[in-house]
Design goal:
Two copies of one chain form a homodimer.
Chain A lengths: L14 E4 L10 H9 L6 E5 L7 H13 L4 E5 L10 H8 L3 E4 L4 H8 L3 H11 L3 E5 L1 H4 L4 E6 L10 E5 L7 E4 L8 H10 L4 E5 L3 E5 L4 E6 L3 E5 L4 E2 L12 E9 L4 E3 L4 E4 L26 H6 L17
Parallel strand pairs in A: 1-5, 2-3, 2-4, 4-5, 8-9
Antiparallel strand pairs in A: 1-10, 6-7, 9-12, 10-11, 11-15, 12-14, 13-14, 15-16
Helix pairs in contact in A: 3-5
């Protein structure tokens, strides 16, 4: 087992990669969560639309969405080249934000424009001082240190099906991929983990977010799942594959996590999920001595469950119930 | 870890589920392998086309294909209902075969027509006496005891995304799914493993075969990969999910195996793969004492590899080389 490397400095804010296509018309669970984490109606949100090909249109859409959800202090910025990404006014705008929201589009454009510039550094600084950094689609990918830059879909892992380049590094030890189920990116993330087994692969479905706290806990929100691929113990010949040859990978650990599930990126283990019993309690063994004397047989309910004596688990109940 | 249950009786023949769409025009790797295992040009092959909606057309296509590859003793049968699947002449045909080949189509039709009939029993008997039983697509699924009967595509595991029913049981402890990458059936197989964690999920790509020997070794042939999903250690709340809710599954073990890889279905571990070092040898530590005295430094080749002294591995070579 390689040492788990997914860590964030203490005091850092939440990082919230979103798998793209978050709901903007219905319950807007994901966008509401961004606002909640950023301070509710007192939030100060900066929308960065550099990745998008839609220009100011996408900026205006998010400004209206956040305003409609009760946040009045929303600013859009759109550096288009590294020179603009050095603008002191843009840095000052980020410096006062409680949340940075990066739109979807082309993450290679976003990365080549802002990584290693004053704007990129300001986003990192905002994260370190406790601001929320959220990003959807391309904006999610760039949260990684080793970022998916491009690649093709399909379930089979193949050589060169995906490429990485440097991202913002808000999440270290984690490669984020997005539109995961919808664009069938399983093979691409598998191939990236084969080539980078020190990185945990995190695939996020559309309208789904991974909310990562400073302690390295990832909580899932939204409609789909977050898929986690752990290659720590993988046996692979990926380094021998050429062309379109599928990759041999044996012993990956896989997790599919819907909303409410909490996963520890440092220990690489599930912490909890809705409906799971508390792991800290040992399995119960019930004997006749455990049955409260005044317990009335709940005949109808037991009958309704079709319970057999071999499977019935009798719980202790206080005498007053 | 639950006890691995994938076993076959000693003396039984090879079972060869194929992921569908095996090459019928080019190298025909998969079909040639069926013939090789069945005795080469002396093979006696029965083609069962019950699953197909193409009727005699598909039977004739396979008769011609096998004939073109040098097998003259090929017979097609097509029981259309359970009454026909009791026909003694069909049973006698299977009884003398060295290979049974089941075509693609609708595995629920195939299963409801032959499972538990004299034809179904004859296929099982053929397997037990050492004949090859191969099947493509629907014909692959029916090899399982717990067979995928139907379901929809998509990477996210969801409740009721796949259903199982009784297959021929030639492979026990293994649920076979086919057209795996091409129809994006990852989520469906994950959901089936969530509901049946005692079963190993085996997803087979198109033009790819899993060749399973009596000892429970699975070898991959063909163009794609065989994906294995092991739920022995899974933590899941799949039993609480309803409707279209995605399933929580944590701690699955995953393997993607291209051609040449060998996997043990009983121990659920990779045995070997092309390009992997021999696992039985300990890692080498080279010291100066290991360097043969007459070894001429192969300066150009070492320079070409850009080898550093810290990474160079020196191999012993006989004095004559």
């Amino acid at each position: 087992m390689t040492e788990a490397r997914a860590t964030m400095p203490p005091g850092a804010g939440v990082v919230m990669p979103i798998g793209g296509a978050e709901d903007k018309l219905g319950r807007m669970t994901i966008l509401r969560e961004v606002i909640r984490l950023a301070g509710g109606s007192a939030a100060r949100i900066v929308v960065i639309s550099t990745a998008s090909s839609l220009g100011d249109e996408i900026t205006h859409a998010y400004l209206q969405l956040f305003a409609g959800l009760g946040v009045s202090d929303v600013v859009g910025i759109r550096p288009e080249n590294r020179d603009q990404a050095g603008d002191a006014a843009l840095v000052a705008t980020i410096d006062r934000a409680t949340a940075v929201f990066m739109t979807g589009g082309n993450q290679t454009k976003l990365a080549t424009v802002i990584v290693g510039t004053p704007v990129g550094d300001a986003i990192r600084a905002a994260h370190l001082r406790g601001a929320v950094v959220a990003g959807t689609s391309a904006g999610a990918s760039i949260c990684s240190e080793h970022m998916v830059s491009f690649g093709s879909g399909g379930s089979t892992p193949k050589f060169r099906v995906g490429q990485v380049s440097q991202g913002l590094g808000l999440l270290s030890g984690v490669v984020v991929d997005q539109h995961f189920t919808q664009r069938n990116r399983f093979g691409r993330l598998l191939a990236l983990v084969a080539a980078n087994p020190g990185q945990l692969g995190v695939g996020i479905d559309e309208d789904t977010a991974a909310i990562v706290s400073a302690s390295g806990r990832l909580e899932v929100k939204g409609r789909g799942v977050v898929t986690i691929i752990d290659g720590a113990d993988v046996i692979t010949t990926a380094y021998t594959a050429t062309g379109t040859q599928p990759l041999m990978m044996s012993g990956l650990t896989l997790h599919t996590l819907p909303r409410g599930a909490i996963f520890d990126l440092t220990t690489r283990r599930l912490v909890s999920a809705p409906g799971l019993p508390d792991e800290t309690e040992p399995p119960k063994v019930a004997t006749l001595a455990d049955v409260p004397e005044d317990m009335r047989p709940r005949t109808r309910r037991i009958a309704a469950e079709g319970a057999h004596t071999t499977t019935a688990e009798l719980r202790r109940r206080p005498a007053s119930s």
